[in-house]
Specification:
Blueprint: H1 2-22, H2 29-55, H3 63-87, E1 96-102, E2 105-111, E3 117-121, E4 128-130, H4 136-145, E5 165-170, E6 173-178, E7 190-195, E8 200-203, H5 209-218, E9 225-228, H6 233-244, H7 260-263, H8 268-271, H9 303-313, E10 318-324, E11 331-336, E12 339-341, H10 343-351, H11 362-379, H12 398-409, H13 430-436, E13 444-446, E14 449-453, E15 459-460, H14 463-474, E16 479-481, E17 500-502, E18 507-511, H15 517-533, E19 537-541, H16 548-551
Parallel strand pairs: 8-9, 18-19
Antiparallel strand pairs: 1-2, 2-3, 3-4, 5-6, 6-7, 7-8, 10-11, 11-12, 13-14, 14-15, 16-17, 17-18
Helix pairs in contact: 9-10, 10-12, 11-12
Length: 562
């Protein structure tokens, strides 16, 4: 570059010399020109200074300076609030990492015990972004347990001056946003941004430079330059909307096409949470003059639809029979005679319409109603999540089947809790929803589960045991709780007991904690003990709750297996 500049200047000199030879400049012109320009500049400076002094504008702040002072003043209370935030508990429990892939797009998420998305690890080299910076150590442990080779930032324990903010990593810059409870991440106000390419951190208030730098260090990034800047006009409007009218997250995550006739099965107070379309489920292809193809679900071509329908009704789909969906009117198929349900309604029965936002309201009352109604007409007690996978009412009563499916619409599932937001309260687990609905009034929470009393009065140590006990009671299968295994000098020196003994001497075990090594070892001893004494032993897991009629078919009275 220096060589090119030298060549250019040399060429210009030659041109100037040639011009001078042709028309020499009169002597004194350059000196007179300099003097004239200096005098003109002096006049302008005197005029400008006199106008500012006379008009009172001397020393007045500019609009840019006022905005900067305003943002600095607004940031001061945040610094004090963050000191309290860092020492308070975060409320997330049982963090775990999972890998999810949708249409070949794979993400590694960190979830808490109730299914709330606490963070995401951005492959291949990070960062790990979190909705709450206080859980970083636990989130890193969850990732390592999941098999992700991730290291903690150097000196993580000493980087304790972090703000209550989240990093939204994506595109060519990272947006740093101030957290607010109950507000989705996309609507949080922005406090600054980081350019990974140049290593520049830009903050909108000078006092935020240090805590935002610490936040980036905890993400494994060290800014090379920290500067103050003014937010763009679009960002300024976004921050103004976030400050004036923070938006609450809707508990409705999906919509349905339930017809007005089907909605009458749900009390009017709770119908709106079915989130039916305004057209009352009118099929698009049925509209006059529509050029769209008819909406038809074909189980022969859609394996997802076939599996969903067969799982709900425990029977193969009748591919030759078709009729209108009983809930929305769309063309559908059936696994039981006369019970036609489309793919969309089967999916909503499996995943629900509502999600837990961490803020109670009228929607939580609808969930309580649905749980109590299912406990009354289908399960004779609090249902488990596994039991919701299969309809358990007589299939001859079509209206009753419609009602239990609509009640499933109103139930949030684990994993359907609101994602990427800070809830006002921790999302409820399934057991906590049962307690919220008033179905565990006799239950006591223990390390083994929720101890409760079955319908026949037997004490059960978990809801799983209660479901099995209630099944045996309602199906007329005689069962004795807590029978003792025969003694053995090596296998049974502590007085092992089974969960139940049937009338013919068969022992039954409900295996609910097989992930615990001590519990699994104890079960192995019981199985070896049963083999040694020639005892028949039936084991049931939570995945078997929908197969109890098949598992206990040998003991069911005649005519009740169906």
């Amino acid at each position: 570059m220096r060589a090119l500049v030298d060549d250019y200047l040399a060429a210009r000199r030659r041109e100037t010399d040639q011009c001078a030879e042709r028309a020499p400049v009169p002597s004194g012109v350059e000196r007179f020109l300099r003097r004239a320009l200096a005098e003109r500049l002096a006049v302008r400076l005197r005029t400008g200074l006199s106008h500012r002094a006379a008009g009172g504008a001397w020393g007045r702040e500019t609009e840019r300076e006022r905005e900067r002072r305003r943002r600095d003043a607004e940031a001061q209370p945040l610094l004090h609030a963050w000191e309290t935030y860092r020492t308070s508990p975060h409320g997330f429990r049982d963090l775990r990492a999972v890998t999810r892939s949708v249409f070949h797009h794979t993400r590694i998420l960190v979830l808490d015990g109730s299914g709330v998305e606490v963070g995401q690890y951005h492959e291949p080299d990070g960062p790990l972004t979190l909705v709450d910076e206080r859980v970083r150590s636990e989130a890193l442990d969850a990732l390592r347990a999941h098999g992700v080779d991730v290291d903690a930032p150097e000196g993580l324990a000493s980087l304790d001056g972090f703000p209550n903010a989240v990093v939204v990593a994506g595109g060519d810059k990272w947006s740093i946003r101030l957290s607010k409870q109950g507000v989705p991440r996309s609507r949080l106000p922005e406090a600054g941004w980081f350019d990974p390419g140049s290593g520049t951190l830009t903050v909108y208030a000078a006092s935020l430079a240090e805590p935002l730098t610490v936040l980036l260090l905890r993400h494994g990034v060290r800014p090379l330059l920290v500067t103050w800047g003014t937010p763009h006009e679009e960002v300024e409007r976004h921050n103004l909307r976030a400050a004036v009218a923070p938006a609450e997250i809707s508990p409705v995550s999906s919509y349905s096409r339930v017809t007005a006739a089907a909605q009458r099965l749900i009390p009017e107070l709770h119908r709106r949470w079915l989130n039916a379309k305004p057209d009352d489920g009118e099929v698009l292809s049925a509209r006059a003059g529509s050029l769209l193809p008819p909406l038809i679900d074909d189980a022969a071509e859609d394996s997802y639809y076939r599996r969903a329908l067969e799982a709900l009704f425990a029977a193969p789909v009748n591919l030759a029979e078709r009729g209108p969906c009983r809930l929305c009117g769309r063309s559908a198929q059936s696994a039981r005679p006369g019970l036609f349900y489309c793919h969309g309604c089967c999916a909503l029965a499996s995943r629900g319409v509502l999600r837990d936002t961490g803020v109670d309201g009228a929607w939580t009352e609808a969930i309580g109603y649905a749980l109590r109604r299912l406990a009354e007409i289908e399960f004779s007690g609090p249902p488990s999540l596994t039991q919701l996978d299969r309809v358990g009412v007589p299939f001859e009563d079509h209206a009753l089947v419609d009602e239990v499916l609509l009640c499933r619409f109103l139930l949030p599932r684990p994993g359907s809790a609101v994602l990427s937001a800070r809830p006002l309260r921790p999302a409820r687990t399934w057991t906590e929803w049962l307690a919220h609905a008033g179905l565990l009034t006799d239950g006591v929470r223990t390390s083994m589960g929720t101890a409760t009393t079955a319908t026949d009065g037997h004490l059960c140590r978990s809801l799983f045991e209660r479901h099995v006990d209630d099944f045996l009671h309602h199906r007329g299968v005689a069962h004795e709780p807590e029978p003792a295994y025969p003694r053995h000098p090596e296998l049974n020196t502590t007085g092992l007991r089974a969960d139940w003994r049937l009338a013919d001497g068969t022992f039954v075990e409900a295996l609910g904690l097989m992930t615990q090594e001590a519990y699994a070892a104890k079960v192995a001893r019981k199985q070896e003990l049963a083999r040694h004494h020639g005892l028949r032993l039936v084991t049931v897991t939570a995945e078997d709750l929908n197969r109890l009629p098949e598992i206990f078919a040998d003991w069911l009275p005649k005519g009740s297996a169906s």
